[in-house]
Amino acid sequence: MDRTEPPEDPQSTPAPGSVRPGGRTARTRAAVLEATLAELVETGYADARIDRIAARAGVAATTVYRRWGSLENIVVDLADDLAVSIELPDSHTLEDNLRTVARAVLTLNEDPAHRAWLQVMVSAAVRSPKAREALSSVLAHRRDLTSVAVRHAVTRGEVPPGTDPHEVIRATVAPLYLRMYVTGEPVTPADADRAAAAAALAARAGLFVTRPPE
Amino acid sequence: MDRTEPPEDPQSTPAPGSVRPGGRTARTRAAVLEATLAELVETGYADARIDRIAARAGVAATTVYRRWGSLENIVVDLADDLAVSIELPDSHTLEDNLRTVARAVLTLNEDPAHRAWLQVMVSAAVRSPKAREALSSVLAHRRDLTSVAVRHAVTRGEVPPGTDPHEVIRATVAPLYLRMYVTGEPVTPADADRAAAAAALAARAGLFVTRPPE
């Protein structure tokens, strides 16, 4: 983050809880991320070009290259920007916390910008290893963040030691992604809750314990 | 199926168990399906054209239009052609049969032709409602066929009455599709078996019973 920024204009100060340092730098970032989404939706990932993104954002292409270095890096930053924060308290059961994770997938699916981003990436990942890597990295990062729910449950003894947190999160979100990005069926809060309940049940039964190969 | 065909050439008789009536008609179908896959892989679904498919197959475009009527119909027929037959005996437990279903998803993923077909369709479905409909229809048909495993289990009392067979199948295959088509992670037989075990456990616990909204 560039620390040589002029002081923030008080008029443009973001709401508490969403503060981000930087004024012009933050505005440049926002403009570039918005331009990237527009470029991706219009041309697809394979044909997206950083010089056109820079032109859409009204900044120099060199600024974009210096800050992000590659389209994949912008795409990952965009995904972080579109994500939602969720609370997964240790005082909640695993099923409650997995329900929060599953409902967050639905919330993101209802955000047109996030849905557009993910659709473009799923579509592109089939043909582009770089797109696959960017998408895979974003989703792995999100599993890292939500894994805390599983680690809490292991510590509390609600699920067996050795339970693989990523596998529990995958089981929770997979039926939702199947509907959203493969079969194209609608997803409802009931689907989210059912997926969370099934994943929690399987985790309690020890099905997601990672064992060394025999 | 055209029944005015000349008798089959014994040299080209397929192996027992894979017999399909028709000689020239069957060869035309095989050539068109093969040409469709090549066209889809090369140009994507959005740009695939029936006249080019006909030219690749060495048949008249009118023949293709008369027999299939639309690209979507050819794509659905291609998927049926690439599918594998599986046995889901009533004498097996639900978990055993779901493991067979999950392993079949892996088998299809190892077939380059089927993998190419499904990748093209997942990629196209994001932008094309017709592609989405064709893909959705193929997968719903496969769930219909594999639902017998769940219906057996309901009749035997292994899972509660009112268990939704499609939901059980979705839960079984979803973690595999997530890896194959969203995160791009490898899928292993252990992943298939774990998904089958988790879905069977949730089904036995009554999590897939469809209740009227309260």
Automatic annotation (TrEMBL), chains A, B:
PANTHER family per the UniProt record, alphabetical: HTH-TYPE TRANSCRIPTIONAL REGULATOR RUTR (PTHR30055), TETR-FAMILY TRANSCRIPTIONAL REGULATOR (PTHR30055:SF148)
Tagged with keyword Endoplasmic reticulum: no
Domain HTH tetR-type: 26-86
DNA-binding residues (ranges): 49-68
Record has DNA-binding as a keyword: yes
InterPro entries: Homeodomain-like_sf (IPR009057), HTH-type_TetR-like_transc_reg (IPR050109), HTH_TetR (IPR001647), Tet_transcr_reg_TetR-rel_C_sf (IPR036271), TetR_C (IPR011075)
Region entry Disordered, spans: 1-24
UniProt KW keywords: DNA-binding, Transcription, Transcription regulation
Protein's recorded name: TetR/AcrR family transcriptional regulator
